[in-house]
Design brief:
By secondary structure, the chain is an alpha/beta fold. The protein contains ten helices and eleven strands. A six-stranded parallel sheet has the order 1-11-8-7-5-6. β9 and β10 form a beta hairpin. It binds NADPH dihydro-nicotinamide-adenine-dinucleotide phosphate.
Length: about 325
């Protein structure tokens, strides 16, 4: 695609929900093929405490697994669970042959060190891609690791919309370990749907708008509602909004609504492509989690000498 859009090319919505649906349908076919060889990909999710938002995410992950014919297990633990008890659950899942992917839902209660838990997960089952081995593999371009689901989902959205990334100026706003940094690692690789010139911005960036204005692709992952406005982007830009923010809204029954980091109404008319919030990046995260779990199952089976038809990392 061209960076500068003509009038009719502006304002196109990237339908993350529809794209995620296609991925999940493709995975269901893959899972059925694996089942014929006696392999049922299994995902275990551990939820510690009773944070309502986390409970909703976990329930949707389990539902999505079952729907695709995968084996989904949720382990719910009380908020006062000790770090040692949680580690023992992780070790048991590492050893469980029916489980190929392990996800510990974040955030964890304050008395538990997230890093210690992440490092305890077998990297071959680390479908969240947060283990330092997988973080390192992603950065150095080794293809047999796992990329974190949200940035992998963003790359997949770009690919499936045919948004060329090679040689493009890509500005990522946000440098967290779960979104901004792995997004940078993915897009900077010498690979298809990568090869971008990547700039990563954060709170210390001096003139954010000067960076975003020259971008062909802006990826916003800050948790700041409406941070990116129309005056901060050039005509024809591709905008990916990772943000999920609650803002008070008395007009909504719940008293709030969900918005992204992008001022959607003002930016859409100047963007060639833009993701909405909700139904943009959000649904891709679960789809990529499932994709990583199916890959984990095939890689583990291949390592055991069993047949494997789906071992490459995603699209890259
Ligand atoms: P973090 O809070 O961990 O990181 C936010 C990043 O944004 C930081 O690097 C911060 O900079 C930067 N930032 C904050 N304010 C500004 C600013 N004014 N200018 C420039 N940079 C700024 O958030 P996450 O990465 O975990 O999440 C980001 C958003 O994405 C959230 O809304 C979250 O809910 C959402 N999210 C959505 C997912 C999905 O599935 N769609 C999955 C994960 C997250 P600094 O480092 O200097 O503090």
């Amino acid at each position: 695609m061209r960076a500068e859009g003509t009038e009719q090319e502006l304002g196109r919505i990237i339908d993350g929900q529809a794209i995620a649906r296609s991925i999940r349908d493709e995975l269901a076919v893959e899972v059925a093929a694996l089942a014929e060889g006696g392999i049922v990909p299994g995902l275990a999710v551990i939820l510690v405490g009773d944070d309502p938002a986390s409970a909703v995410y976990v329930a949707s992950k389990e539902r999505a697994c079952r729907e695709a014919g995968m084996h989904g297990v949720t382990i719910k633990l009380p908020a006062e669970t000790t770090q040692q008890a949680l580690l023992e659950h992780v070790h048991a899942l590492n050893a469980d042959p029916a489980i190929h992917g392990i996800l510990v839902q974040m955030p964890l209660p304050r008395h538990i060190q997230s890093d210690a838990i992440i490092r305890a997960i077998d990297p071959r089952k680390d479908v969240d891609g947060f283990h330092p081995i997988n973080v390192g593999k992603l950065l150095i371009g080794e293809r047999d690791g796992f990329a974190p689901c949200t940035p992998a989902g963003v790359q997949e959205l770009l690919a499936r919309c045919g948004v060329e990334t090679a040689g493009k100026e890509c500005v990522i706003v946000g440098r967290s370990n779960i979104v901004g940094k792995p997004m940078m690692s993915l897009l900077v690789q010498d690979a298809r749907w990568a090869n971008a010139t990547v700039t990563v911005c954060h709170r210390h960036t001096k003139d954010l708008a000067a960076h975003t204005r020259r971008a062909d692709i802006v990826i916003a992952a800050t948790g700041r509602p409406g941070l990116l406005t129309a005056d901060m982007v050039k005509r024809g830009v591709v905008v990916i909004d990772v943000g999920i923010n609650r803002v008070e809204d008395a007009a909504h029954a719940k008293g709030y609504r969900i918005v992204g980091d992008v001022d959607f109404e003002s930016v859409r008319p100047v963007a060639s492509w833009i993701t909405p919030v909700p139904k943009g990046v959000g649904p891709m995260t679960i789809a990529m989690l499932m994709k990583n779990t199916v890959r984990a199952a095939t890689l583990i089976a291949a390592a055991r000498g069993e047949t494997c038809s789906f071992a490459g990392r995603g699209i890259a």
